[in-house]
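Think of the structure tokens as a kind of shorthand, similar to the way a musician reads notation: each symbol stands for something richer, in this case the local conformation of the backbone. In the example below we present two proteins back to back. Begin with the first one, reading the sequence and then the tokens, and try to describe in your own words what changes along the chain.
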Amino acid sequence: MPIADDMQAALRALANERRVRILDWLKDPVAHFPRQVDGDLAADGVCGLLIARKLRVSQPTASDPAGAARHVLSTLKPDGTWMIVEPLANDKPEENHNPVGRVYYSASTMICTPASLAQEVGAALGAQAGEAKIREMVTAGGFTRFRRAAETPFNLVFEARP
């Protein structure tokens, strides 16, 4: 697939309603978000947690992925399955240098990593966590079986079992 096609596909994927709404809010963060404890909304950027609250979605689990895995494990039946959908990323950063990877690195750098660092655990796995790091966090949370179940041009899908 030519780079232009890759870029068009990436832009279509990013153009969902919530993402567009976030970009609109970030044009004037002072008008759309409450004052932050640390940092200036306009100069330093908006904490990802404020974005999550405004969207009325749960706090990003990237702040404590092993803790999130422990919580999921505690809710599963013994024969249950946790399906995990993550942005497509390879373990080696140089393998992520493509149009989709560039978009994901930007979003992660501006939203996920700062949100993680603002939390008590603050794992901040880096701009993109590949399969090896995700496996490490899931098994640290107590899961004993982990496998890649599927891959799309934009996501990796993993299956974790107790």
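Once you have a description of the first chain, move to the second and do the same.
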Amino acid sequence: MLMKRILKGLSVICAVLAFWATEVEAQIPSIQEELALAEAEWSTNKPKTYEFTLKIICFCAPAPPGSEPIVFRVNNGAGSRVGSLRTRSPEDLEKYGTVEKQFAFIRAALREQPYRVEIEYDPVLGYPRRVYIDPKPYTADEEYGFAIEAFIALSQ
């Protein structure tokens, strides 16, 4: 009799915990939902002209002397480098040249179903502040991503 009561009590506790876990999980937005929300925020609030400094996150060869900081200026959706143009490869940086291209970079990375993803978006404008992608578990030095620093809205 006592064992039946204990099992019944445990069943109720398990059911409550399962329900609670489902409710908590439903409140946590998925990475895809966060991306969609950030894109909507950006679409609504993006400045006409803006500038940002790009930091590449990777285990790759150091940038050539004089090539940093990497600064982009975007005017009416067209991005261009500002300052020194010495770099690993201008084509490598093209995918980061506008916030829209950064969102496309994130979508492409997510399609590959990486092992670990960490993305931080600006709470006001929605642009990605930091993106970290770890494609595979138990593999060293293949992580990649970028960080946006010194974002400046030059005109609305």
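Compare your description with these statements about the second chain. Strands lie at 49-58, 70-75, 78-82, 116-121, 128-134, 144-155.
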